[in-house]
Amino acid sequence: VSKLSPDVTETTEEYQGETIRILSLKGSLVKVAYVRFGEMLVLGIGDVSVKRAIDTVKGKIQGLDQDADFIDIKQAFLPDARISGYFQYGVFMMKMKAALLEVASRSGRIDQNVLQQIEEGFKGVQGFKSFTFSGRMADVARGRFDVTFDPDKLSDEARQMRQFKPADNRSLSFIPQQTMFYYWSSLIGLESYWNSLKEKMAQDKEGLKTPIPSGIDMDKLVSMASDEFGGYLTGVKMTDLFPLPQIVLFARVRDQQDAASYLDQIIKDQAFLRMERESYKGIHIEYIRAFPFIHQLEPAYCFFKQYLMAATSRELLKQAIDAEMNEMT
User: What share of the chain is helix, strand, coil (3-state, %, to 5)?
Assistant: First the structure.
């Protein structure tokens, strides 16, 4: 590599009988080190990680194959996985916390308020131990993520997430076949997030504000929503001004009639919104007439199959209705 550019210099260092090669870029403090073990090439930023790899190979320190957490989680890897990754998230975050405390201490700015802010910032990561990934490439590429944690050490917010039970995905029947990207989750926990935000707003001495239009009762709005949320992208259309993604977002509501009535009331209270209605196959679609110079943009929403659906155009909602109708026939 050093021969390809005069700005790159290469030095070597002998360590435990192995040769470490260190690459330095002129004007940069970052150095890349690497060492070979047969056909295996190990690279690292600086020489510390490479030296630890050598220590592991030489048996000076314990390898990952002897780590109890990794041995346990490895059993969940996909069969015949050709790609795998392991991140000791808990250890990393605790080292980050220690580093922040040290920096604050050296600067002389550490006090009870700073300590409380740091503790609060890392509260959500308590109990999490590691993230792992395994994957394999075939006609259909597959990947799997796993998380290990100590349930007794989780924060209240994380502990609440464990209360969610598996749910049936009832949205697939109205997703058009030409969809390029699709997402669905039943783990949003909207009510928990909102309660947490209210608590922080109440504690914030500077008066944390949320950009909520007047007349909207967020407690009522949140109570109407379930924990199902999703969306999909069918493509991108070019307008005279910019590319316009063809996006549909949807959220399942607990009571469709109640939610529709309240949303209608909210919109009527917003003087700048002029909604129009079209009935399509028995479904009322509310929309805003196309914007000047952006004829393809026609924000619309409807209630369908217990879902509130919003899209960048009413045609996208019609496609969802058609997909569901075809599924039923």
Answer: 35, 30, 35
Q: Which long-range contacts (CB under 8 A, 24 or more apart) does 184-189 make?
A: 184/228, 184/229, 184/230, 185/228, 185/229, 185/230, 186/227, 186/228, 187/161, 187/227, 188/227, 188/228, 188/229, 189/160, 189/161, 189/164, 189/227
> For residue 305, which amino acid is it?
K
pTM, two decimals, is 0.66
C-beta neighbour count of 63 within 10 angstroms: 12
DSSP E strands in the chain: the ranges are 8-15, 18-25, 31-37, 40-45, 83-87, 128-136, 142-149, 181-185, 225-238, 243-253, 275-280, 283-288, 300-304, 307-311
**DSSP 8-state assignment for residue 312:** S
Task: Give the strand pairing for 275-280 and 243-253.
Answer: unpaired
Place of tokens 């783990």: 187
What are the angstrom distances between the C-alpha of 288 and each of 261, 272, 274, 285, 303? 18, 11, 6, 10, 16
pLDDT in tens, the chain (329 residues): 556 677 888 899 999 999 999 988 888 888 999 999 988 899 999 899 999 999 999 999 999 888 888 888 888 899 889 999 999 999 999 999 988 888 888 877 677 777 888 888 888 888 999 999 999 988 888 999 999 899 889 888 778 777 777 788 999 999 998 899 999 988 767 777 777 777 777 766 555 555 566 667 888 888 888 888 999 999 998 776 788 899 999 999 999 999 989 888 888 777 677 788 999 999 999 998 766 666 678 899 999 999 999 999 999 999 999 999 886 54
Cβ contact 103:118 at 8 Å: no
